[in-house]
């Protein structure tokens, strides 16, 4: 096992391969406060990549309802339980540092039928059957498994809650699938960090499915090899004629109706961390504003998918899912600073990948108080630029208000 540094858990950890990093890293931010589970992203991906025989159960993009939904079913709860069994009572955060065992470290202590390089499990066929199981299920009955409370909780106390979690492959810095593959058939592209399967080397052993904590590598029985999200890399390479050779967002990103998604390519420094890029929107949201958090950072894969946590969900549940930065992220999002409010307007405003933003200050609109804190709204203009510095989007914080003329197509 090699020693690598994982900045999401703020310590060095064990990993089966020596540390190696790409020039840029594909990354994204999903704002869970906006997701309406319309599944448009899901079917955009499905109709592009997984519409053939043997791919029927493959949903590279899926939207699941938490706390009960999951695809495959219970994927996160099962692995969290396995980690706890391997390291009883030790899966804890000490400030920003995770002191427990990652899936790579826990595998060495796990006692199973055969040795594992990555702690994991293979889902059953039944767990793959329903991509949106328990959709909109908010509250269960205590002590009654597989049932929900039809009455909920009577007012004025209202504890019912749920939220939608949109997921694709996180294209991790330390992928569990890559570490688990005995054929070395999985690799990260040096130009953008996208994790791919070499289908000529793959023999379909499903070790990558077992090792991926997010269960985003999938077996295709018609070819007997593994497949997964490829981050629409032809679009990243600028091969789509629509963009004139410039990097373009993935299919699931551009089709998002709720405007919850923002994709980018971040610079990677010599030490493997993100190189400072102050006015890159993804860098700002993750490193400066710190409103976007990784999904289950305690797994140790250093995922490159980040989420703005839903503000109405119990904090303990969110801290288990996104780590110790939840309180700061939600409080910052609920009373956003001027720059954050402008950057949030960039979500789903263009099909191009934004590499830099600029804010032109506008007039004050109004002042108020939110949750006991002062808030001032300015109608600033935010401008997004591509990798060549060409302007690709210009929008304002306040959306324009359009008034129809008295006579229009729907007039009576």
Report what the structure shows:
With 412 residues, this protein is α+β, with helices and mostly antiparallel strands. It folds into 2 domains: 2-317, Alpha-Beta Plaits; 329-396, no CATH class. It contains 11 helices and 19 strands. Strands 12-3-14-13 form a 4-stranded mixed beta sheet. The chain has a 3-stranded antiparallel beta sheet with strand order 15-18-19. A hairpin with a 2-residue loop joins strand 5 and strand 6. The longest helix is centred in the first third of the chain and has 12 residues, at 75-86. The radius of gyration is 22 Å and the shape is globular. The mean pLDDT is 93.
Brief rundown of the structure:
This protein is an alpha+beta fold and 412 residues long.
Per-chain topology:
Elements: E1 2-6, E2 11-15, E3 24-31, H1 40-49, E4 62-66, H2 75-86, E5 93-94, E6 97-98, H3 103-106, E7 163-167, H4 176-180, E8 186-188, E9 195-197, H5 207-211, E10 217-220, E11 225-228, H6 233-236, H7 251-254, E12 261-267, H8 281-288, E13 293-294, E14 305-308, H9 315-322, H10 326-334, H11 338-343, E15 356-360, E16 364-370, E17 373-378, E18 381-385, E19 391-396
Parallel strand pairs: 3-14
Antiparallel strand pairs: 1-2, 3-12, 4-7, 5-6, 8-9, 10-11, 13-14, 15-18, 16-17, 18-19
Descriptors for this entry?
single chain, 412 residues, Alpha-Beta Plaits, 2 domains, four-stranded mixed sheet, three-stranded antiparallel sheet, 19 strands
Text of the CATH class of the largest domain? Alpha Beta
Major sheet description: 4 strands, mixed
What share of residues is helical? Answer: 10-25%
Number of helices: 11
From the 3D structure, determine the CATH topology of the largest domain. Alpha-Beta Plaits
Q: Beta-strand percentage?
A: 15-25%
Order of helices and strands: EEEHEHEEHEHEEHEEHHEHEEHHHEEEEE
Estimate nothing, just give the exact number of structural domains: 2
Straight-line N-to-C gap: 74 Å
Overall morphology: globular
Report the mean per-residue pLDDT as an integer. Answer: 93
Which structural class matches the secondary elements? alpha+beta
Radius of gyration: 22 Å
Physical arrangement of strands within the biggest beta sheet: 12-3-14-13
- Quick one: how many beta strands? 19
CATH architecture of the largest domain: 2-Layer Sandwich
What are the segments in which pLDDT stays under 50 over at least 5 consecutive residues?
none
């Amino acid at each position: 096992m090699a020693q690598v540094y994982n900045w999401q858990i703020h310590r060095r950890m064990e990993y089966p391969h020596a540390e190696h990093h790409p020039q840029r890293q594909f990354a994204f931010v999903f704002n869970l406060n906006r997701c309406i589970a319309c599944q448009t992203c899901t079917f955009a991906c499905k109709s592009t990549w997984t519409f053939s025989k043997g791919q029927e159960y493959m949903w590279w993009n899926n939207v699941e309802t938490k706390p009960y939904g999951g695809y495959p079913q219970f994927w996160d709860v099962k692995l969290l339980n396995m980690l706890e069994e391997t390291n009883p009572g030790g899966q804890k955060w000490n400030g920003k540092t995770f002191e427990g065992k990652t899936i790579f470290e826990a595998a060495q202590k796990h006692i199973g039928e055969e040795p594992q390089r990555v702690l994991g499990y293979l889902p059953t066929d039944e767990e793959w059957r329903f991509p949106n199981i328990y959709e909109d299920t908010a509250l269960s009955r205590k002590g009654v498994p597989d049932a929900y409370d039809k009455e909920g909780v009577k007012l004025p106390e209202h504890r019912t809650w749920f939220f939608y979690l949109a997921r694709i492959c996180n294209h991790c810095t330390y992928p569990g699938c890559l570490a688990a593959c005995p054929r070395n058939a999985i690799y990260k592209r040096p130009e953008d960090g996208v994790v791919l399967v070499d289908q000529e080397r793959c023999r379909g052993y499903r070790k990558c499915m077992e090792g991926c904590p997010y269960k985003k590598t999938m077996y295709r029985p018609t070819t007997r090899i593994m497949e997964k999200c490829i981050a629409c890399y032809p679009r990243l390479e600028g091969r789509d004629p629509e963009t004139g050779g410039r990097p373009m967002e993935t299919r699931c990103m551009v089709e998002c109706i709720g405007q919850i998604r923002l994709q980018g390519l971040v610079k990677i420094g010599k030490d493997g961390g993100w190189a400072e890029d102050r006015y890159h929107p993804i860098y700002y949201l993750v490193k400066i504003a710190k409103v976007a958090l990784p999904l289950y950072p305690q797994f140790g894969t250093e995922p490159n998918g980040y989420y703005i946590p839903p503000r109405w969900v119990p904090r303990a549940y969110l801290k288990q899912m996104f780590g110790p930065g939840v309180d700061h992220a939600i409080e910052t999002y609920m009373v956003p600073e001027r720059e954050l409010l402008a950057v949030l307007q960039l979500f789903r405003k263009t099909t191009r990948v934004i590499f830099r933003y600029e804010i032109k200050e506008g007039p004050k609109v109004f002042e108020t108080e939110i949750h006991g804190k002062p808030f001032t709204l300015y109608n600033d203009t935010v401008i997004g630029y591509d990798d060549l510095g060409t302007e690709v989007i210009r929008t304002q914080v306040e959306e324009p208000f359009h008034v129809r003329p008295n006579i229009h197509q729907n007039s009576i």
